[in-house]
Amino acid sequence: MIIVCETKASEAQIAAIQQKIREAGLAVHRSDGVEHTVLGVVGDRSRLDMQAFALMPGVRDVVPVSTPYKLASREFHPEDTAVQVGEAAAVGGPEVAVIAGPCAVESEQQIEATAEFVARCGARILRGGAFKPRSSPYSYQGLGVEGLALLRRAADRHGLALVTEVMTIEQIGPVAESADLIQVGARNMQNYPLLTALGRCGKPVLLKRGMSATIQEWLMSAEYILAAGNARVILCERGIRTFETATRNTLDLSAVPVVKHLSHLPVIVDPSHGVGNRRFVAPMARAAVAAGADGIMVEVHPDPDRALSDGPQSLTFEEFSALVNRCRIIATTIGRRLDKGK
Ligand code: PEP
Ligand code: MN
Predict the structure, then answer these.
(1) Residue of the nearest CA to atom 4 in ligand 1?
(2) Domains parsed from the chain with CATH numbers
């Protein structure tokens, strides 16, 4: 249930409404919009007398929210949310954010060269896995905490924010210390204890869509993070499993407008994991920007043929530079912008 306050509701009136909700044993989340303050009530609604709230001073409307996610819904927060990531990036504002870097950090030289190049092209956020969720236990598993330090140094040297993945609750501490944005990978989208812990981590979270998750399940996972107290969630479409085998996954670009309709949260697209083949990454990145994505996340490697993970889908520097230039034109055409770089 959400309570929409009158435009002129006083702070004292809003506080009285919040107090009444808490007295009923329910949690309340406040969202201050351009016109109205909206209070999201989370918990067992049968414990509340909706009519009693409707009559309180300062209340304009009491609306039952039919979706199983509340705080992630457009009803709770009608305006788009922009999430600030470090000092370098805002995801969900007028600018289309470019997130780029290797699948995994492998060495100081590799991450430094990549950070330098992607920053020059206009990327705002450096990506790179230090803890890698590999499908095979025999594949490269990442550099762990040593990788976090390499990533942070490379990002700082080139004025980039940093996103990297956590797989376990124990990794949240070290990752939150290094990263500006914490990634939850597709395989962990429904790891509810991890999501709840990330709700308390104090850093924004990039929540990738599970490979077999519906949009509703994905938004319910976002709700776990929001309900635990972290309003800074960015969603990332990265392809889903279908019967098609020509591409690694099927990139569901219709998720972009659907999520934007259902939710206020920013949504970005990862075409690299979506298609799994570098030949198809650029057209899908361009299509993502055209579809209204708030950003793209692309795997880039100085020498993709020698990459320790996801080489076949990683772009060369040259391919990445061309992709960003084309995406910039599309962004401008649809009334957005994409940073020019240095
Ligand atoms: C990644 O971004 O490095 C990754 C492992 O992606 P996903 O979780 O989407 O497979
Ligand atoms: Mn990868």
Answers:
(1) 185
(2) 2-63 (3.30.70.1140), 83-333 (3.20.20.70)
* Per-residue model confidence as pLDDT tens digits over 313-341: 999 999 999 999 999 999 999 999 999 88
CA atoms within 13 A on the CB side of 210: 17
194/192 Cα distance (integer angstroms): 5
Measuring from atom 6 of ligand 1, which residue has the nearest CA? 185
Ligand 1: which residue has its CA nearest to atom 3? 103
Measured from the CA of 132, which atom of ligand 1 is nearest? Answer: 5
Pairwise CA distance, residues 211 & 37, whole Å: 36
The whole-number pLDDT of residue 255 equals: 98
Instruction: Locate 13 and state its tokens.
Output: 């009136």
Among the atoms of ligand 1, which is closest to the Cα of residue 310? 3
Distance, CA of 145 to CA of 58 (rounded, Å) = 51
Give the pLDDT of residue 65.
86
Nearest-CA residue for ligand 1 atom 9 is 186
Identify which of 4, 13, 58 has the alpha carbon closest to the alpha carbon of residue 33: 4
Residue percentage of the chain with pLDDT more than 90: 92
What separation in Å is there between the alpha carbon of 186 and the centre of ligand 1? Answer: 6
**Ligand 1: nearest atom to the Cα of 129:** 3
Site residues for ligand 1, CB cut-off 6 Å: 103, 129, 133, 185-187, 208, 238, 273
299 Cα–ligand 2 center, Å: 7
Is the Cβ–Cβ distance between 82 and 266 less than 8 Å? yes
In whole angstroms, give the CA distance from residue 250 to residue 291.
16
CB atoms within 10 A of CB 145: 13
C-alpha to C-alpha distance for 27 and 22, rounded to whole angstroms: 6
Please indicate, yes or no, whether the overall pTM of this predicted structure exceeds 0.85. Answer: yes
Torsion angles phi and psi, residue 110, rounded to 5: -60, -45
Per-residue pLDDT of 227-280, as tens digits, reads 999 999 999 999 999 999 999 999 999 999 999 999 999 999 999 999 999 999
Which residues lie near ion ligand 2 (Cβ < 5 Å)? 103, 310
Residue predicted with more confidence, 151 or 340: 151
Which residues, including other chains, have CB under 8 Å from residue 137's CB and lie 6 or more apart?
Answer: none
